[in-house]
Amino acid sequence: GKAVQTVTPASGSVTNAMLAGSISNDKLNTIATSILGSGAVLQMVYNIQNMGNTRSSGSHGSWIDSASTALSITPSSTSSKIIIGYFNIRGHTNGANRGSFYSIFRDINGGGYSNIGQSGYGLAESASNTGDNESTMITMLTVDEPNTTSQVNYKAYYKAYNSSGEYYFHHVGYAGSTDMPILKIAMEVAG
């Protein structure tokens, strides 16, 4: 047979630029899954955001973009799952029998946003039937299977619970302070 020869390159002779692009994302995902197993976190993106007061009024039967809540992740494999969450949203209502439904919407590579929660009620709600100026802490967390290696964009949406009046996606106080940030997080999990 043939002899195997091992050569150790001189220090600094192999650069990152020489290796760039030599291993595809699919190959990296396969390696990570085989070493770490299905369910391993492959990447995480997050953002902590001060939003101030985000308000709407009237009776809306359709979902409203909450503005400025976008978070993007690009999966390395079509079999990956994305754990997506929005935390510390302070839903608020100014009156009895009012409030909001909340949901997460997804856009793949600019194709348009669609609801990944329940179509009518979303993933969470804040409602008051007892009085004025009630706040509810909202958390939305779900597992998405986008089946793509293109960029996936997520946003939080909300809509009226009942009746007319003012309701808030996020309410941090009457002065409009920005001391209650929202945490947005997305994690790619090996499928």
What is the terminal-to-terminal distance?
41 Å
Mean pLDDT: 79
The amount of beta strand, in percent, is 35-45%
Q: What global shape is seen?
A: elongated
Low-confidence stretches: none
Molecular structure report:
A hairpin with a 5-residue loop joins strand 6 (98-108) and strand 7. Helices cover 8% and strands 43% of the residues. It starts with 15 loop residues before the first helix and ends with a strand. It has 191 residues and is mainly beta. It is elongated. The strands form 2 sheets. Strands 1, 2, 5, 9, 11 and 12 form a 6-stranded antiparallel sheet that branches. Strands 3, 4, 6, 7, 8 and 10 form a 6-stranded antiparallel sheet that branches.
List keywords for this structure.
single chain; 191 residues; mainly beta; six-stranded antiparallel beta sheet; 8% helix; 43% strand
Task: Give a topology summary.
Blueprint: H1 16-19, H2 25-36, E1 41-49, E2 54-57, E3 64-65, E4 71-73, E5 81-93, E6 98-108, E7 114-115, E8 124-128, E9 134-144, E10 152-160, E11 166-170, E12 182-189
Antiparallel strand pairs: 1-12, 2-11, 3-10, 4-10, 5-9, 5-11, 5-12, 6-7, 6-8, 6-10
Entry summary:
By secondary structure, this protein is mainly beta. The chain has helices at 16-19, 25-36; strands at residues 41-49, 54-57, 64-65, 71-73, 81-93, 98-108, 114-115, 124-128, 134-144, 152-160, 166-170, 182-189.
